[in-house]
Design goal:
With 181 residues, the protein is α+β, with helices and mostly antiparallel strands. Helix content is 18%, strand content 27%. The protein contains one helix and eleven strands.
C-alpha cells in the first residue's frame, strides 16, 4: 500500500495486536482488581466469633437431646447446603444447655444420638460418648467438642468459633497429636 491510500498493513496489524492485548489485559485485570478492592466493595460478613441462632427454646424440650443446624458464618452464596452445620443440643433442665459438635473426636465422622441407651455413637470406628459428651469407649482421644452458648430473647445462640482439629493443641487435653490420627 502506498502512503496516499491510508494505513499500511504493518501499522494495521500493530493496532489490531495492541487492541487484542488491551482486551486480554482488561479481562485479566478484573479478578485482580476485585481481589484488591474486596475489603471496600464487599459487605461485612459475620466472622467466626459471631453468635449464631439455633432456634427458639421451645424447639429444645427439657431433658431431651435434639439435632439443630446453624449456618457457617464464613459461607459464600455458592456453598449451598454444605454451609449448614449440624450440632446436638441437650436441654438439661429447661435453663441450662449443652451444645455439642456432631463430629467424632477421632476422625470427624458424624455421631448419632441414641435415646434408648442415652449415648452418642460414631458409626465409623465405634466411638461412644456419654450424654454429657465425655468419652465412654472406643478410639476417640477426648469427648465431643462443646460450643459456648447463651440464651437471648427466648432463643438459643452459640458461638460459632473455629472448631479444633486433631492436629491442633486445643483439640485434645495433652497438646499432642493422638496416635490414632
Amino acid at each position: 500500500m502506498t502512503a496516499s491510500t491510508g494505513t499500511s498493513r504493518r501499522a494495521l496489524l500493530a493496532k489490531v495486536g495492541l487492541l487484542f492485548n488491551g482486551i486480554v489485559g482488561a479481562i485479566l485485570a478484573v479478578p485482580v482488581l476485585r481481589y484488591l478492592l474486596s475489603p471496600i466493595t464487599r459487605g461485612r460478613k459475620p466472622g467466626y466469633e459471631s453468635w449464631l441462632p439455633l432456634g427458639g427454646l421451645e424447639q429444645f424440650p427439657a431433658g431431651q437431646t435434639r439435632l439443630a443446624t446453624f449456618r457457617n458464618p464464613a459461607a459464600d452464596s455458592w456453598d449451598g447446603q454444605t454451609a449448614d452445620i449440624p450440632c446436638w443440643v441437650r436441654n438439661l433442665d429447661g435453663k441450662n444447655f449443652q451444645v455439642f459438635a456432631i463430629n467424632c473426636a477421632h476422625l470427624g465422622c458424624p455421631v448419632r444420638w441414641f435415646p434408648q441407651s442415652n449415648l452418642f455413637m460414631c458409626p465409623c470406628h465405634g466411638g461412644v460418648y456419654y450424654s454429657d459428651g465425655s468419652q465412654a469407649a472406643g478410639p476417640p482421644p477426648r469427648g465431643l467438642f462443646r460450643y459456648i452458648y447463651r440464651v437471648e430473647a427466648g432463643r438459643l445462640l452459640i458461638n460459632g468459633g473455629e472448631m479444633p482439629t486433631t492436629g491442633s493443641p486445643s483439640a485434645n487435653r495433652y497438646g499432642v497429636k493422638p496416635p490414632c490420627a
